[in-house]
Amino acid sequence: MIFLLRELLKLELSNAVERVVGQTYSFEVDIAPQGFGDFATNAALVGARYARKSPMQLAEQLREELKNSELFESIQIAKPGFINFVMKRSTLLRVLHRIIELDNYPVNKIGTGKIQFEYGSANPTGPFTVGHGRQLVIGDVLSNVFRELGYEVTREMYINDAGRQIKLLGRSLWVRYNQILGVKDIDIPEDGYHGQYLIDIAEKLADEQKDRYKEKWDDQVSQFFERYAVESILKDMKEDLMELGCSFDVYFSEKSLVSDGTVDQVLKILEQKGCTYWKDDALWFKVSEFVEEDDKVLIKKDGSLTYFLTDIAYHYNKYKRGFSKVYDIWGSDHHGHIPRMMAAMKALGIEDGFLNVILHQFVTLKRGEEIVRMSTRAGEFVTLQELREEVGVDATRYFFAMIDPNTHMIFDLDLAKERSSDNPVYYVQYAHARICSLFEQARHKSVLFEKGKDMELLSDKSELDLIKRIDAFEDALKDVARTLSPCKLTQYLEQLAYDFHSFYTKCLIVDQDNPRLSNARLNLSYATMVILRKGLALLGVSAPEKM
RNA sequence: GCGCCCGUAGCUCAAUAGGAUAGAGCAUCGGACUUCUAAUCCGAGGGUUGUGGGUUCGAUUCCCGCCGGGCGCACCA
């Protein structure tokens, strides 16, 4: 049974449109701007071309058709052809009753099927940077929202524990270890890892192993240092994830794709389809056959595998696991990787739409007037941990969620630190804390809170605005899913908090002399609280009862 | 040179699959606490949406050119 206001309206309108125009088309229903009633639709504007009438004429006909509906108090038509609806108060209250009755906002489970979000994937060659933080938060929030909408979501992190970078990491650690043992004339390779964290790890290692590997280097030693470095760094990374409130269902090892034969399988398929060839002692994939890009190497002439090859294998593995769609979240510097991955998907016979890539732009850090340049290899960056410790988990998560992934983001550290109380997260949290204190007050003053009663007494504009906003929660979630941008949710919550704060300022909620009106307003506050909690939980941000 | 993304208030960002008067926060100015948390509310100022065209009832949004910025263009990942 439909109880959301906009859903109800859309249904009635669709029926009317079908009767009047004789066909269906998509249109919008929104909360109307100030002075244009409760809700507004562009149905007549969009439909004008199908109906072969002017928008105003069509609007008039639709109004006539809807005249007898029980939902509306009145229907007006405005300038180019908007139809504006004033709802009956009893209609507005339906949502509220439903939420109170369920003690929850029942989101329509429109999602079907198994999907996957892959994010936070990083070389285990150093701690997470703030850039990773952005990606982690985007992925985590999107996963939460898709799950809320009914999808079966797997959160996954790909661990690039193979390849040249890992060898470099092992070598870099070995150099640090030797430096600690006093070996001179030994330096980290030019393109190796120079960060302080490797010195820390080397110190621990030197402590454990003494001079066992001093000035000794062969394949076995190399492997030992690689493993030691990766394990140490992974441990720190997982701790970081826990602190940030990000959990994954699967940590997928790149190495495992070789050992379990997936890579060979993929190579065989590509060869069979004639998508590969040998040139200069290397194996190439015919990217150019599928998209306008140059061919790429799969197996290097030294026999080692490229990242491209293992990534194809990884996505083949995802496909075999039965996901209907997978979403990869990558930094924008990887955008060049998209066309060739799409080409590979085609070559493997995987249907369009399976692989979806969400790119996020870089995070620039600003300290004072200075832009902080960041590079993992040079060891010049601010870690996610430092950021989290400076501004707190709630602010970190909220800040990353509130900006569209596609927007280049400037993170002002001083601002985040010094003016932390100006962060919008506190604005939303404060609304929740205020509601909690209202119930405290009600108990204190012995004002009775009875769920689901007296709500017909709600009539102030601020009260009705708040109801409409509560109603729109599901649309906010759908917007997040459609645009793949968590900022739609933070924006909605700020709107909701704003509507609540206005209502709070204008209406005395706990009033001993007016117990029934108080109860009505407590019910409205309660419904608001339900949404705030739910929304903040989806963001992974706490909902404090006191501030 | 080619490709991807971006350009909106002084700053950080929004603006739903083209919609009505382009919105918030910070900053600036002026109001509101003897009554539920002033981390709040009410109001004011601040914009030729980088720029020039095009598409149409209507463009911040779509298309083309130009200017400016970020990022790619590896047998790195």
Number of beta-strand segments: 15
Distance between the termini: 39 Å
User: Which regions contain 5 or more consecutive residues with pLDDT less than 50?
Assistant: none
The major beta sheet can be summarized as: 5 strands, parallel
Short description, anyone?
This protein is of the alpha/beta class and 547 residues long. 51% of the residues lie in helices and 13% in strands.
Could you list some keywords that capture this structure?
single chain, 547 residues, alpha/beta, 5-stranded parallel sheet, 4-stranded antiparallel sheet, 20 helices, 15 strands, globular, RNA-binding
Record the SSE blueprint:
Layout: H1 5-21, E1 29-31, E2 39-41, H2 43-51, H3 55-66, E3 72-78, E4 82-87, H4 89-102, E5 114-118, H5 130-148, E6 152-159, H6 164-180, H7 196-209, H8 219-244, E7 250-253, H9 254-259, H10 262-272, E8 276-279, E9 282-285, E10 296-299, H11 307-320, E11 325-331, H12 337-347, E12 355-360, E13 363-367, E14 370-372, H13 384-391, H14 393-401, E15 409-412, H15 413-418, H16 424-444, H17 461-471, H18 473-483, H19 487-506, H20 515-539
Parallel strand pairs: 5-6, 5-11, 6-7, 11-12, 13-15
Antiparallel strand pairs: 1-2, 2-4, 3-4, 8-9, 9-10, 13-14
Helix pairs in contact: 1-2, 1-3, 2-3, 4-17, 5-14, 6-7, 6-8, 10-11, 11-12, 13-14, 16-19, 16-20, 17-19, 17-20, 18-19, 19-20
The chain binds one RNA strand of 77 nucleotides through helix 2, helix 6, strand 10, helix 11 and helix 12.
